[in-house]
Every structure is written in structure tokens, then in C-alpha cells.
Amino acid sequence: MKINYNFLKIILVLSCNNLQAIGQGSYIYGVHMKPGAITNDFARYDTTTGTLTDLQTIPGLTGFGTIYTSCTDPVSNRYYFCSGKRIIGFDMSTGNIVLDHTLPLAANANYYSIQFNQCNGLFYGLISNFSNLSLATYDTTTGILSTVSPNLGTGIIFGSMSFIDYSNSRYVWEYLNTVAALDLSTGQFEFNTTILNLPNELFFHIVYKCSNQTIYGTSANPAITKKYLAVFDTSSGNVTHVSNTGWSLGIYKPVSGGFTIDQTGGIYYYIGTPGFIMLGVSTATGTLVHSKNLNLPTGEGFFLIQKPGCICNTTGFNETTINSGEINIFPIPFSDRINIISNNKELSEIILYDITARKLCQQKFINTVSLNTEQLVKGIYLYEVKNKNGVIRKGKVVKD
Predict the structure, then answer these.
(1) CA 155 to CA 134: how far, in whole Å?
(2) More confident site: 305 or 150
(3) Is pTM, for the whole model, over 0.90?
(4) Cβ proximity of 230 and 239 under 8 Å
(5) The domain that contains 366 carries what CATH number?
(6) What is the CA 75 to chain-centroid distance, rounded?
(7) Residues 29, 15 within the same domain
(8) For the residues of 36-84, what is the DSSP string, one character each?
């Protein structure tokens, strides 16, 4: 089919701008600790306004500990908090509690570094009794903890320094001076790599960027009061600065303070001290792009921060056309507009998602539609075209 670009000039242009907040948006989620209060709260921080808003009281949590961890499920829009003995789930839009499970653990054991696997609906985490470490799954339907790797030796676990690598079906976590990966099915080590720190620096606080399958972390040099964004090579253990510029704010991070990545915007966020500062660093340039002192009262903190992470089914968005006639989507890569032309003279619908499968834009059309994408950041996006028979085309597009 030859595309008539002149015809497209009269297509009604529909905007995704006002729907962008439905996706990743500007929010970072975490636990607002208030030592002087009876309770602590599930809260969100707005990177646009710099405000921290409490959404829901966390039942039964009156203190805070280094064994606490968290994760998200971007598909169901949930934030999960784990105290080591208990998992509580929150709806990230409303703050409502959607899950509250006490784990079937021995008195001397705790469940650490949890991650939710959307592919099978199971939590993955590390059970430790301080003499043995094992990878285990937790099924919220049956309430059963199942061991995957029975004996991983010993390891000290702090905070949420783990992620699931869906592309390679791995559970990855950081402990002491090592980054390790376990096969999700067999529990066998796929790598167990010692971190080769740069001179006078310490690399820590790993996150995983879905779009380029890269591990990022911060590398600090306290002697010269500098911190850098860096990438970690799982084969060699080498640490490489994204930029040698660095920054001097928030050199230290409180234990369990948290760190996360905006998968759409490509910004690495972490809580720095002194002063509980929310800092954001571009993974493209390695430069500081966000800095806001939370101005919390003495003794308060914002911990276990998360933004929606990777999803298990991005591979399910490989280019596919299903009995749909001819559909053209262009230009690819796109910039401020993306156009769809279909041979079918029937009502269809285009849905645009970010890389975490959060819906950004949804529009019905017949034959043709042009979406205004000026406000979307550069990166990978997913799409589906549907009609009355279901999905007729899906795939990935890139904004350049």
C-alpha cells in the first residue's frame, strides 16, 4: 500500500499529552517513616512539585528496619512492602491496601529483597536465618513459600538491591561486594561476579534499565566528596562512569533509603544524605537533573523508593499482524507525531504504552489516525491495534 502523505494532512490530530500522567508519570513511591508517630505511611513523591503525600497508613508498622524491602507490579499498578515476615500491597493510584499476608517462616528467618514476577504471579526473594541463604518463591494464592535454591551460603541483605531480568529469566541481587544472578526456574547461579571498584570508590545500589538491559548504580568517592553514575559489567566486574563530571550532593545514602529508575525517562533516582535529598541522574549523560531536599522533620525519612519497573511481556510485543489486512504505522522512529493507516473500513483502536506496559494513550479510529506525541520522552514504546475481533497488530516503536 502506498501511503498518501497529502491525505494525512486532513487527518484529525489527536493528542496523547493529557494522558501522559496515566503512565509512569512524575511519582515515586515509598515508605514515609515517622519515628514519633504511632504509624508509618505508604507515600508518594512528585518529582514535578517536590511534594511528599501520604496515601495510606501501613498497619502494624511502628518502627523501621534494615531488613525491609519493596518492589512494584507495573501491570496491576501495585507497590509491595515486605517487613521480612509480612507482605503488604498497595494500589499506587488510590493508596488502598490490596494484599496483606503473613509469611509462613520460622521464627529466626526473614524474607528479603522481594521482587514480583508478572509472568507467573509469584514473589521471588531470599530467605535468610543468618546461617543460610536460599532463593524462594511465595504464592499469594496458596500461601506457600517454595525453595528454588536451597543453599546459597551466607550473605548480608540490606534494602531492595535486586531485580528480575525478564529477558534472561534471572533473579539478580547485590550483596557485600558482589552481584549475582540465579536462574528463575532452576535456582542455579548464572553469574556471581565480584565488583571491581574504581580507585578510592565504592559501587553500590544497583538498578536495571529495561530498554538497554544495563545495570546502573552509584560509585562514590568520599575523599573528594564526589558521586558518579556508573554501569556494571556482569562478565568482568568492571565499573565504568557514565560521565566523569559527578556531583557533590547526597554522597551518602541511608540504609534502605532506596533507589529506583524511571524506565521511560531514563533517570536514576535515590535518596541522599545528609538532609534526605531526592536526587535524579540522567542515565544518558550521567549528570544531575533533579535535586530536592524533602525538608522532613528531624527523625523522619522516606525509604524503599520505587517507580514501576520492567515487565515480563515486552517480548510479547514483537511485531505481529493477525488477519488484519494491511496496517501502516509511521514514521519509525517517530518524533512529535505517529500515524496509523488501516485498510479496514471498520472501527479500530490504537493503544500506546510505555516500556512498563502502563497505558499512555488510547484512541478509536476508522481508517486513519494521527497521534500528537510531542510530550512523550525519547525511548521505546509499545502499541496494540484492536478491532471487534481483538488485537490485530502489536509491536514496539521508538521516539527519537
Answers:
(1) 10
(2) 305
(3) no
(4) yes
(5) 2.60.40.3080
(6) 11
(7) no
(8) TSS-EEEEEEETTT--EEEEEEETT--S--TT-EEEEETTTTEEEEE-S
